[in-house]
Every structure is written in C-alpha cells, then in structure tokens.
Amino acid sequence: MPRSMIWDLAKQTEYPGVRVFALQQKLMLMAAHDSILAVRVKEIKTANKKHQLAPFEKNELVYVSVH
Predict the structure, then answer these.
(1) Are residues 52 and 36 in contact, defined by beta-carbon separation less than 8 angstroms?
(2) Residue 19 CB partners (closer than 8 Å, separation 6+)
(3) What's the rounded Cα separation, in Å, for the pair 41 and 16?
(4) How far apart are CA 65 and CA 32, in angstroms?
(5) Which residues contact 22 (CB under 8 A, 6 or more apart)?
(6) What ranges in the chain are assigned the alpha helix state H?
(7) Handedness of CA 60, 49, 39, 4 (dihedral sign)
(8) Can you tell me the mean pLDDT for 26-37?
(9) Closest C-alpha to 6, from 29, 27, 22
(10) How many Å apart are CA 16 and CA 28, to the nearest integer?
(11) Whether pTM exceeds 0.90
(12) CB burial class (10 A; 0-12, 13-18, 19+) of residue 5?
C-alpha cells in the first residue's frame, strides 16, 4: 500500500498549492480504483449469467481435471 499523499509534518498553511494538487491526485486515484472495482463486479455478474449447473446426480462418478 503506498504511503499517504498528504503529509502531516508541514503546517497546514505551508505549500497550499502542493496540498491542493496532492489532494486532487489522491481523489483521482480513488476514483480510478472505484471504477476498476465497478468493472470487475460487472464482469463477474456477466460471467455468472453464463454458468450452468452441472448435469450430475448425487453419488455419480465423474472425472475431474486438475488443470
């Protein structure tokens, strides 16, 4: 996990432009992360729609591939 982009050592009034820029970068990174998660959830839902239950009965012998 990367370090926080906003540091605590400098005073709040020091480097206001840098603080604003760092906060904007942090918010954009969080938005990109949220977008990636939303796409992954959508992909999972789409993939699960295509899955079907196996046509096997209880106690039936089957071959299982480990690959």
Answers:
(1) no
(2) 6, 12
(3) 38
(4) 38
(5) 5, 6
(6) 16-50
(7) negative
(8) 94
(9) 22
(10) 18
(11) no
(12) middle
Chain length of the chain: 67
Closest CA relative to residue 3, chosen from 32, 25, 36, 35: 25
Residue 43: band (very low, low, confident or very high) from pLDDT cuts 50, 70, 90: very high
Query: Please, what sign has the CA dihedral across residues 39, 34, 20, 3?
Result: negative
Residue 31 confidence (pLDDT) above 90: yes
Terminal Cα distance for the chain, rounded: 32
- To which residue do tokens 């999972």 refer? 44
Task: Report residue 38 as tokens.
Answer: 């939303």
Query: Model confidence at 38, in pLDDT bands (50, 70, 90)?
Result: very high
Paired tokens of 22? 């760092």
